[in-house]
Amino acid sequence: MAPPIFFPPRKAASMIVLGWREWLALPDLGVARVRAKVDSGARTSALHVDEQWRFVERGAPWVGFRFTPGRTRRVAIEASAPVLDEREVTDSGGHCNHRVFLRTHLRLAGQEREIEINLTDRRGMLFPMLLGRSAMDGAFMVDPARSFLHGRPPSTLEPRP
C-alpha cells in the first residue's frame, strides 16, 4: 500500500477544494455551464459530443462538434477548435479508442485556467463532462464526501476577466 500523499501546508492552503461533482464553464466553446464528475483517477478530461467532424482552417486541422450539456434542456451547442493532438485513451471499462484532444479554458470556483480535453461519446454516463487530474493539477483538491461546493454558474457566459 502506497503511503499517503501530504501537501505542504502552504501549498494545500492555496488550493481550492472541489466536491466529487461540480458545475463548470467552458467559455471558449460557448458552454456557460455543464455538470462534471471530478475524477482524480482519470488522467485526462473528457467532454461528451453527440457528433464530431474534421475540417482544415488556414492549413491546420480543426474539429467541429455538437453536444448537449444538459439533461433536461435539450439545447445543442455547436463549437469548433484546433486539434491539439490525437491519442489512444483507455476508458474505465478497459476499452481503448482513438480520441481528438483540444485545448480550452475552464472556468471553475472563481478560477480560469487552460486545460486539455478529449471529445468522446459519454451518452450512457450521468455527467457530460469528466474533469481529470491533469486539469486540476496544482490548483484544486477533491473532497469525495462533498459535491457542488461552488454553486451553479449563470446560464449565460460572462466576459473573461
TrEMBL record:
<feature type="domain" description="Retropepsin-like aspartic endopeptidase">
    <location>
        <begin position="17"/>
        <end position="152"/>
    </location>
</feature>
<dbReference type="Pfam" id="PF05618">
    <property type="entry name" value="Zn_protease"/>
</dbReference>
<protein>
    <submittedName>
        <fullName>RimK/LysX family protein</fullName>
    </submittedName>
</protein>
<dbReference type="InterPro" id="IPR021109">
    <property type="entry name" value="Peptidase_aspartic_dom_sf"/>
</dbReference>
<dbReference type="InterPro" id="IPR008503">
    <property type="entry name" value="Asp_endopeptidase"/>
</dbReference>
